[in-house]
């Protein structure tokens, strides 16, 4: 499986590239891939089926100056701190999303074990430590191919999560968004670096997949560039 490690980039580029990789894998034009990356600048992403008015505190988002991007995958809102999170994407063959979540969670649990932490898979799509979410996942299927992407919060500023507005029913049931999550730095009591988190993630994914360093193809670059317009278009962002 190909391994691609990148630095930060804008939400429109990152979502366009993930969608491109799923399309191309479904046509057998690229290999199965693990990509490690991050959003830059700090960005709020919203699941494909969620309404902005229900899930986004737009006033706070504007105060922070964070962009909003709608994903092509499902799942809830996610705050991506450019200085505190590594985002990962996995494209692989298959058509069973739950099986993919379970497989990938093993890699993430292995990565957490490098810090002496015991992670657990929490269905449908989270990995938790001490009862709090440290990894969230979302996915999409196209033909016989699956993309799963998600967070790995090593030092996320949880105050930024004020940009997420949970529906009252969910907030009463589960509490505010920032109360439901944690980070490596909080759990360990020291500031974990990106390098430490990245090395643990690579080792985690290597425990599940046979990884070989690779690069994006010209086809991936060209198609993803042409798809970026979708993720900057308000008609997509405010679809709901």
Automatic annotation (TrEMBL):
Q: Which domain of life is it from?
A: Archaea
Q: Where are the transmembrane segments?
A: none
Name the source organism.
Answer: Sulfurisphaera javensis
Which InterPro entries does its entry note? aa-tRNA-synth_II/BPL/LPL, BPL_LPL_catalytic, Octanoyltrans_LipM/LipL
* CDD domains per record: LplA
Keywords assigned by UniProt, alphabetized: Ligase
Q: Which GO terms describe its molecular function?
A: ligase activity
Q: Does the keyword Chloroplast apply?
A: no
Entry protein name:
Biotin/lipoate A/B protein ligase family protein
Statement: the UniProt record of this protein carries the keyword Ligase: yes
Please report the stretch or stretches of sequence annotated as the BPL/LPL catalytic domain: 28-213
């Amino acid at each position: 499986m190909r391994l691609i490690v990148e630095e930060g980039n804008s939400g429109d580029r990152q979502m366009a590239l993930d969608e491109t990789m799923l399309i191309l894998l479904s046509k057998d034009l690229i290999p199965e891939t693990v990509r490690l990356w991050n959003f830059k600048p700090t960005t709020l992403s919203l699941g494909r089926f969620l309404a902005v008015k229900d899930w986004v505190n737009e006033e706070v988002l504007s105060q922070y100056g964070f962009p909003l991007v709608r994903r092509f995958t499902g799942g809830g809102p996610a705050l991506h701190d450019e200085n505190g999170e590594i985002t990962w994407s996995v494209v692989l063959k298959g058509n069973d999303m739950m099986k993919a979540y379970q497989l990938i969670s093993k890699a993430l649990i292995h990565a957490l074990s490098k810090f002496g932490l015991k992670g657990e898979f929490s269905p449908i799509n989270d990995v938790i430590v001490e009862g709090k979410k440290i990894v969230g996942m979302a996915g999409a299927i196209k033909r016989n191919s699956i993309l799963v992407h998600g967070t790995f919060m090593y030092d996320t500023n949880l105050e930024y999560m004020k940009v997420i507005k949970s529906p009252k029913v969910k907030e009463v049931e589960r509490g505010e968004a920032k109360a439901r999550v944690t980070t490596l730095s909080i759990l360990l009591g020291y500031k974990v670096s990106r390098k430490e988190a990245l090395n643990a993630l690579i080792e985690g994914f290597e425990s599940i997949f046979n990884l070989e360093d690779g690069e994006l193809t010209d086809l991936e670059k060209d198609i993803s560039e042409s798809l970026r317009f979708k993720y900057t278009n308000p008609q997509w962002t405010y679809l709901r």
